[in-house]
Write a structure and sequence with these properties.
With 128 residues, the chain is an alpha+beta fold. The chain is 17% helix and 43% strand. Strands 1, 2, 3, 4, 5, 6, 7 and 8 form an eight-stranded mixed β-sheet that branches. Pfam families: Glyoxalase_6.
Length: 128
Amino acid sequence: MKRVTGIGGIFFQAKDPVALRAWYQRHLGIDVQPWGGAAFDWTDAAGQPVAGTTAWSIGPQGSEQFAPGTAPFMVNYRVADLDALLQALREEGCQVLEKADDSEYGKFGWVIDPEGHKVELWEPPAGS
């Protein structure tokens, strides 16, 4: 079974998310949207679009978004078969969170790594 197929998103917290988003927009040219982040569409070597997007977002420090993880960031990994991967992780003794989400954006599940980081696993909707 193939496990991770790419990075779906990078999310982190900041003391002043508005100012930090503005810094990234001004100095690095990231097209920060009103929702607090940006979406980077995937392209091939020739610059042509391919299926996939990586989200990037800055949220407020102290948010519960990454709980029970202990880090001020979370990486979202794109996966091909979320249910099968979560089951395999459980069988391997990993700390898989019982909560899972299924929405128009795809299926989401979470695991805590050995150092306490919450890791998000995302199976995009069919055709994405």
